Amino acid sequence: MNVRRADAIAMALVAMSLILVMFCPDESGTLKQVCLVGAIALPFLAVAVNVIARTK
Q1: Entry pTM
Q2: Is residue 55 packed enough to be buried (19+ CB in 10 Å), middle (13-18) or exposed (0-12)?
Q3: Pseudo-torsion of CA 48, 49, 51, 53, nearest 10°?
Q4: Where does the chain cross the membrane (predicted)?
Q5: What is the pLDDT of residues 12-37, one digit of tens each?
Q6: Buried b vs exposed e over 20-30: b needs ≥16 C-beta within 10 Å?
Q7: Cα dihedral sign for 38, 44, 47, 52?
Q8: Given this model, what pLDDT does residue 10 score?
Q9: Which of 49, 50, 53, 56 shows a CA-CA span of 20 to 30 A to 14?
Q10: Which long-range contacts (CB under 8 A, 24 or more apart) does 17-22 make?
């Protein structure tokens, strides 16, 4: 994978994480938990994409 493409994918994943945080529902429940777990996991996925692209 191209490093530039990996950077673009990583930035998109971080942006999706921020959007999830902004539009997470206010009431507590399963949807809010899934939303917050996704918002926490997406930046780690972005780092993984970058590391894999740079080590190949």
Answers
A1: 0.80
A2: exposed
A3: 160
A4: 7-25, 31-53
A5: 999 999 998 898 888 888 988 988 99
A6: beeeeeeeeee
A7: negative
A8: 92
A9: 56
A10: 17/42, 17/43, 17/46
What is the distance between the alpha carbons of residues 56 and 52, in angstroms, rounded to a whole number?
6
Q: Is 53 exposed, middle or buried (0-12, 13-18, 19+ CB in 10 A)?
A: middle
The DSSP-derived string for the chain is --HHHHHHHHHHHHHHHHHHHHT--SS-SHHHHHHHHHHHHHHHHHHHHHHHHHH-
The CA-based diameter of the chain, rounded to the nearest angstrom, is 44
The CA distances from residue 2 to 10, 23, 50, in Å, are: 12, 32, 10
